[in-house]
Amino acid sequence: VGSDEQGEFWRCTLIEEATRLRVGRGIGRTETEASIELLHQLKRRGHPDAPPPLVSDGWGGHREALIEVYGHVPDYSGRGRPPSLKQPAEDWQYLQMVKQREQGRVIGVEPRVIFGDPQQVYAALDTHTAYVERTNLTSRHMNGRLVRKTLGFSKRVQMLRAASVWEDVVYNLARHVKTLRLEVNDGIRRWLHRSPAMAAGLADHIWSIEELLSCVPVPNNT
Fold it and tell me: 115 CB contacts (<8 Å, ≥6 apart)?
């Protein structure tokens, strides 16, 4: 999970590490608000009961969002005041990579296990956020509304949402990622370039912009 501030808004992005697929995007006035929206998307897209193992930077909004979206109120035992606050589940796995700074420069990174058994968390997750940080840089190259210190950034959240949806569609379907390529050496080409959607098994080729603009999504209310 990665967070990025843009003007008056926060954007939270969720990336599948193995395929680099952007699987969710939340936008809000605060990081927690954006993260809550993102996790509700994740809940609808295959993780209804518990979050998958997650790693993020050291910002604090994701922890509160996880508890708000996936937390549960403990059962009442009949003694004392009934519990009212949501609690995390024991099987959650969430790791934060907290950057250590000195005079504005990063001098180190400290991993902190927020939820889960430390040994299991370290076994399930890589102790870095390089892919998310790289995708934030890619976003600024693809989306003019995210360029810092310009007048092009979004003043209205509706326009930022629209630009972000288009950016994610192009990134997932119409761009190849170098680290996802496969060596084929079939006599015609050495490499098979793949998009994140191809790596995730959602597409069989890199889409063109014309294909994206002419495709009509089929509504799915399930």
Answer: 66, 88, 92, 93, 94, 121
CB-based contacts of 148: which residues, under 8 Å, 6+ apart? 140
Residues ≥6 apart with Cβ < 8 Å to 44: none
> Measured between alpha carbons, how far is 1 from 22 in angstroms, rounded to an integer?
10
The count of C-alpha atoms lying within 13 angstroms of the C-alpha of 113, restricted to the half-sphere facing its C-beta, is 17
Answer yes or no: are the C-beta atoms of 212 and 173 closer than 8 Å. yes
Residues 6+ apart with CB under 8 A from 16: 23, 196, 200
Report how many helices (DSSP H) and strands (DSSP E) the chain contains, helices first.
7, 8
Split at pLDDT 50, 70, 90, the class of 82 is: low
Helix (H, G, I), strand (E, B) or coil at 19: coil
Answer for the pair 55, 97: CB distance below 8 angstroms, yes or no.
Answer: yes
Cβ pair 41, 30 in contact under 8 A: no
Tokens of 3: 């967070």
pLDDT at 6: 62
Model confidence over 158-203: pLDDT tens digits? 888 888 999 999 999 999 999 899 988 888 888 899 999 999 999 9
Give pLDDT tens digits for 33-43.
989 999 999 99
